[in-house]
Amino acid sequence: MKLAYRVTGQGRPLILLHGLFGSGDNWYTLSKIFGEKFKTYAVDQRNHGRSPHGNEFNYRVMAEDINELMFHEQIENANVLGHSMGGKAAMQFAGMYPEKVDRLVVVDISPRGYPPGHDQIFEAMFKLDLQKYETRSQLDSALAPRIADSAVRQLLLKNVERDDNKRFKWKIDIEAIYRNYENVNAAVTLDGSFDKPALFIRGGRSSYLIKSDKKDIRDHFPLAEFVTIDSAGHWVHADEPVEFTKLVMEFLTR
Fold first, then answer.
1. If we measure between CA atoms, which residue out of 57, 72, 53 comes closest to residue 15?
2. Are residues 20 and 126 in the same domain?
């Protein structure tokens, strides 16, 4: 699948992968900073953002999408950074194509399987009749009773656009994502190991990446380093962008 992406800067390639319900726009500000040293590709993964929709949605096809992007852009190898779902896609790609990854950065996720945790979000999105509303503030108010966190609501509303009749519609393929939600939560299928530098950044206020994950990670990423940003939650790069960017740049420019 030919993904949509935004390119910023010059230098060695750096591919940025967003999490579930996100898009390449989540990296808009940080792409400018990374772009001072790297040619950054802020990707919309399949069924998200401006990228095409497809019934298949799992980490192997997402890794193949990254491979197709690199082929199209004539990129032989790149640094790859992914957050949450994007971190799993990055790990899958590094496992399948280790020769194409220079350094790997994974943000607040491990390769293991996770229990479902987005049922309330899916329910809120399915029950929101976009056609009834005129403004984004009205949409925000309509989501609020089911989703109390304003930051989560704003993330979801980034997936809304207007159709030809100026009515709201979802950009994201909610149906395909929901049908494949088991695959999003599933463990990454890694046959071998990625024997190159890898940095795992954890949010101190998040429970996605825990101490017991380290052994599993090192089984597949033996050179893995671990850093915790104590004041950050799961969206580490949004909560503490300065510290996050510093850590990533130092790791990638060694």
1. 72
2. no
Beta bridge partners of 8: 40
Q: Is the CB of residue 146 less than 8 Å from the CB of residue 177?
A: no
Q: Are residues 139 and 59 in the same domain?
A: no
Domain count, the chain: 2
d(CA 234, CA 214): 17
pTM: 0.96
Buried b (16+ CB within 10 A) or exposed e, 145-155: eebeeeebbeb
Local structure of 236: helix, strand or coil: helix
Q: Are residues 90 and 198 in the same domain?
A: yes
Amino acid at 89: A
H/E run at residue 66: helix 59-72
Query: 211 and 95 share a domain?
Result: yes
Same domain assignment for residues 48 and 98: yes
Positions annotated as catalytic residues are 84, 234
pLDDT tens-digit series, residues 116-153: 999 999 999 999 999 999 999 999 999 999 999 998 99
